Amino acid sequence: MNHEALYHRHKQNWAFAYDQSTIYLRLRTKRDDIESASVCYGDKYDWDNTENRGCMIKLTSDSLFDYWETTVQPPFRRLSYRFHLQSGDEQLFYGERWCKAVPSDNSDGNFEYPYLNAADVFQTPEWVKDAVFYQIFPERFANGDPSRNPAITEAWGGKPEGNNYFGGDLQGVMDHLDHLELLGVNAIYFTPLFEADTNHKYDTKDYLKVDSHFGTNKLLKELVEACHKRGIRVLLDIVFNHSGNAFPPFVDVLEKGVRSRYADWFLVKQWPLRSMEKGSAYETFSFEPNLPKFNTSNPEVSDYLLNIADYWIRTADVDGYRLDVANEVDHRFWRKLREVVKAAKPDAYIVGEIMHDSMAWLCGDQLDAVMNYPVRDSVIKFFARHVIDGKEFADSIGAQLAAYPLQAVEASFQVLGSHDTPRLITLCGGNIEQSKLAVIFQFTYYGAPCIYYGDEIGLTGGNDPDNRKCMIWDESGQNRDLFQFYQAMIKLRQEYPALRTGRFRFIHAKERDNRLAYERWDNGNRFIVVMNASPEPAKLAIAASSPHWQEIWTGTSVEAMNGELEISLPGYGYRMFRSGS
C-alpha cells in the first residue's frame, strides 16, 4: 500500500458533524490501492470498553485518489478513531501520529473529534436542497412599466451592448410570475437591483434604494410577497467587495481627499487621488477604476454594510444573498455577516461567488455554499466542448464531491450559465439535444440548479454583453419543446428526493469514451442515468443492482438480463431508469 497517499485531517471536509449526533469521516488513499477500509473508534476516556468498528464505503475517486467515507454516532459526543486498511494479505493502521501494521494498545496517537458541540454543526437552509433557481438580469427580462425607462431606451429585443438599455424592471418580473410558476421554479436569483449608473448595477451608488429604472423599495417588497404566495423564494445579489465611483462616501473622498471622514473606507495607496487609471491611486475590483474596493477591516465600513444585509431581510423579507467577489473580502467580515443574516432570518441562504477551492469559506461560520463553477466548467468541457472524455469528467466531479462537507455540497448553487458566461446553447453550437445532456446532469446531481433566464426557451448568446439579450416573450419565437423539457426535469427532480439528496456514483466513465452512466439512490428509489455525449449512435451494457426497472420518459418496464441493462442511444441521446417504490 502506498503510505504517502494516505490523508485525513480533523474537521473541514475530512471529519465533520452533519447534525447534532452524526459525524462523517473521510479518508484518502491512492486510487485502486486498497481493497477495504474501516474505522476503529471509541471514547478517548474509555477506549478499552468503547472501541468499535465501522466499514467505510468508497465515496468517489479522482484521477489520483480514492475517497472513503463512513458515519459514526459517538454516544458521548467524543470520538477517538484510527483507520484500518487492507489489500490482499497486507494490513495497515493509520492514526494521527503513526501509520503501522499493528495498532497501539490504547488510543494514544489516534485522530480525535474532541467534542460534537451543537453550536459547531454546519447548518445550511433545508429549503435550498429542494430549490430550483431562476436567474434574472432585471434590465433584460421584461419591461412592465415604460414610465421608468431610462432617457435613451432602445426597442425591446435589440442588440445588447455594454452600456445600452431596454427598460426591463421589477413590474416586468411581476407581470411574468405565471411563466416562472408554470416552468416549476421555486426560487429567483436577481442580479443587483440597487441604484447604480450601469445596466448591470454592480457599481452600487445607494445600497438602500432600488434603482428608479427598476421600481421602488415598496415594489420590491410587493414582488417578494407575491413570490412567497406562489412558493417562490427571492435571493438578492449584493456587492460588499466594492462600491461604484458614484457612491457618496467615495465621492466625498474624491472631493476632500485625506480630510474626508470616509478616507479610511477605501484602500487608498496614495494621496491626493489625482488619477483613476489602472491601479494607480486606490485598490479596486480587478483594475476597474469605477469600482473602488471597500476597507472592510474598518469597523465603520463593516457596520454600514452589515446594516444593509439586515435591512433588506427585515424590510422586504428577502430569503438571502448572493455575494459578489466573496473570496476577496476578509473572513472576519463574512463571519459577522453570517451572524447578522441568520439573526434576521435563520433559514436565509448565503451563497458566494468563488470559482476555486472554497473550503476556507465553508466551515459553517461564513457561507452556506458557493456557486459551483468548477462543476460547471467540467460539464461544459465534457458535454458542450468535447475537450475531456468520460473518465476525466468523472474524475473532476469526484474531486469536487470530496472537497466539501456534505451539507455544503447539497446546498451548492449549480449553474450552467450566467450573466458572466456564454449561454449553454451557444457553447453547444446551437445543438439543443446536446445542451439537454448538460441540463440532465445539472438536475440529477447535488445542489440547487439555477436556470439563467431564457435558457428554457432557447435564448442564445456569446460572451458579455451578448449573453444579456432581452427575454423573448412571443411564444412563436420560443422553443416550446425545450421549455417542456425543462418543466419535466424540474418536476422529476422535485418528485424524487433521491435526485436531490441521495447518494451518487459513476458506473461508466472511461478514457476516450463519450458515453456516461451514473446512479443516484436513497432508501426509496434508485436511478440510472445514461448519456451519449457524441453525435454518433452508441450502445452500452450497464451493471444493474436491481432486475426490474422503469424507463422514466416512456414508462416502459425494462428487465436487467444477467444483471445488466443493454442500452442503445442515438447521437446525443439519453435514457433514465428508476427502480423502487
UniProtKB/TrEMBL annotation:
Pfam families: Alpha-amylase, Alpha-amylase_N, Malt_amylase_C. The lineage of its organism: Bacteria, Bacillati, Bacillota, Bacilli, Bacillales. It is an enzyme of class 3 (hydrolase). Its EC number is 3.2.1.54. One of its GO terms (molecular function) is cyclomaltodextrinase activity. SUPFAM superfamilies: (Trans)glycosidases, E set domains, Glycosyl hydrolase domain. This is Cyclomaltodextrinase. Belongs to the glycosyl hydrolase 13 family.
